[in-house]
Amino acid sequence: MSSLEAVWVRPYDQPGAAYVTGVFDILHVGHVRYLDAVAARGLPLVVGVEDDPRVRAWKGPTRPVNPAAERAEVLAALRCVSGVFVVTGPPEAHGPEDYIDLMAPMRPGALAHTAGDPHAGGRCAAAALLGAECWELEAIPGRSTTRIVNAARGR
What we know:
- The longest helix has 11 residues, at 29-39.
- α4 (96-103) packs parallel to α5 (120-130).
- By secondary structure, the protein is α/β, with parallel strands linked by helices.
- The chain has helices at 29-39, 52-59, 68-76, 96-103, 120-130, 145-152; strands at residues 5-10, 18-22, 45-50, 81-88, 110-114, 133-137.
- α1 links the parallel β2 (18-22) and β3 (45-50).
């Protein structure tokens, strides 16, 4: 049994959707273009937003900038998004097996990630075990929340 849970903000319960997970802290054009590109492949798009304690453990005490509930609300407002949930659980539960247990009941059709994602191998392994496709999409160069936060702080 996974130690991760999905807390649905905009429920979606049909099988075969494309799933992405991430922080989505300060929504920017890179996020929007990526999510649009995933949705353009023809499956409904469902987004998992990592909760605040998980993000803080991974990115440091000043992140996230925006709380998970607000990040999820903003994503749910996007036209290309069919469902949104917040991923909750201990920060150390971030391996493929944790996400397999979390997502198996959702019956995904695809798991998507950006090129260069350090967890791409695990995501593709999880997709295979879930009977889903693994989609890799290009990242938008020069666009990241970390870059925006650093610029705002004068770094």
